[in-house]
């Protein structure tokens, strides 16, 4: 607390001084017929103020008076002790005598935090040779010099209030409390962040008053698989590639190999190259069976293309004439060919045939690789080589060759 050493003057006057309006409570001291009026006084911070205590003595009193005033440490007064002075009173005065004890301090500085301060008094009187003592107290408070009030408006999170501050001592208090406003969140689309397949997004909200953010997280969307898409076309020589992409971000989610081109022809006929039975004798069969004419009078090896479906070469048939015998065999050179049935026969000629179906020629059938006496065939050294395979094959497989029948 700021202390200004006061200027203290005790004045004993024979007449009543002009004083500020006071709230007075009369106290009668020891039944001796005199009274002390303690006061409750409010003083400004600046300007002269007089603390006044009035002692009234009865008439025709002889004696002396001493007085002391003590104060709280929070007051700006210096230590005041026993201002006394055997004050002689007139003898036999016809009227009561009034004595005024005054303390004058041009800058009384109270500790505002302590509130009104109490001042204690005591008076010792000697009247007619008898000593009497009385004491009491009175209260002093300060009228602060408040400046303009400062209004602190409420915020979103803090209450508002008005502050009143004394310009002299700095004491302050608040009034007019106003509740906190709470946030006013509005959409802040400029700060939005769209969610992606793999990362979260942001839905932005900002308080219109204080700027506080209250953003909401948008979960990641996850990938959205699309349809299979061919990126490398397959051929009969190499595999292709197909991928499945995310419809949002385009990332490849799956990759799958496409097999090489394959067109399976199941259960087709393969024969040695030559004329077709149905072209020569339509009544023998409605199938596109072929046969190969042989001259068995000459020894040697005859390689004949092995034709499937009357259009693709898949291998070679071989006929060997040696030492009066004829032997036939074959070799499939194309890939992905499955031979399901075999039939082979040497026929003396078309004359006398009633059918070219293998079932009808079962008695003439000879296993591949088995030698047959040429003499058993008749026909003067001429014969027909008829083989029929039932095959399932891939027309795009390696080794399958287009064969022109023209």
What does this structure look like?
The protein is rod-shaped and about 190 Å long. The chain is 1% helix and 47% strand. It folds into 4 domains: 11-143, Immunoglobulin-like (Sandwich); 185-218, no CATH class; 225-258, no CATH class; 265-402, no CATH class. The chain is mainly β and 406 residues long. It has one helix at residues 277-280, and strands at 11-13, 23-24, 27-29, 34-37, 39-44, 49-57, 63-71, 97-105, 117-127, 130-143, 150-152, 160-165, 172-178, 185-187, 201-203, 205-207, 216-218, 225-232, 240-246, 252-258, 264-272, 292-295, 300-308, 312-322, 325-332, 337-347, 372-373, 382-394, 401-402. The strands form 7 sheets. Strands 21, 22, 23, 24, 25, 26, 27, 28 and 29 form a 9-stranded antiparallel β-sheet that branches. A 5-stranded antiparallel β-sheet has the order 1-8-6-4-3, with no helix packed on it. The protein has a 5-stranded mixed β-sheet with strand order 2-5-10-9-7, with no helix packed on it. It is built from 1 helix and 29 strands.
Note the topology.
Elements: E1 11-13, E2 23-24, E3 27-29, E4 34-37, E5 39-44, E6 49-57, E7 63-71, E8 97-105, E9 117-127, E10 130-143, E11 150-152, E12 160-165, E13 172-178, E14 185-187, E15 201-203, E16 205-207, E17 216-218, E18 225-232, E19 240-246, E20 252-258, E21 264-272, H1 277-280, E22 292-295, E23 300-308, E24 312-322, E25 325-332, E26 337-347, E27 372-373, E28 382-394, E29 401-402
Parallel strand pairs: 5-10
Antiparallel strand pairs: 1-8, 2-5, 3-4, 4-6, 6-8, 7-9, 9-10, 11-12, 12-13, 14-16, 15-17, 18-19, 19-20, 21-23, 21-28, 22-28, 23-24, 24-25, 24-29, 25-27, 26-28
